[in-house]
What does this fold into?
Amino acid sequence: MSRPRFRDISHFYDLLKEPAVIAKTRTMKARRNVVFAFTLTLIGAISMTNSAVAQGQAPLAPTTTGVMVILTAKAGVAREQVMAVMPAEIRETVQLYLSGKIREWYSRGDGRGAVFLLDTKDVAEAHAIMDGLPLAKENLLDHEYIAVGPLFPLRLLMAKP
It folds into this structure.
């Protein structure tokens, strides 16, 4: 296979803009991302079978740096019920944000609620915060709590061989 000849550097950059080159570059990047994700998954699986477990020692527990709370309107709750409580909910939610308890907050893409990332050390603390909000007191929302932390397999990169 012969190598293409380039008249000058601008000709080279023009060739890079060709749809075939762009598609190939995207495919290569996608493959690289899949391989990287697979590698991290494999490292995580290997870490679960590491020597600490084989020797009867307790494996390292993931560090919890926050709790994600997924809020969903309960089935059968009318929009008007939720909207009647929203002014108080917004005021208290803003206070939690300003005090540093809510790190991030988002609207759900399906329009059925919100997602909060709370700056808490465990799920119990997150429950206590969320249970104090007006919509929770009125029992209008379902809450799903997920403890989150640094990607655990990355710890293996820091381990000494």
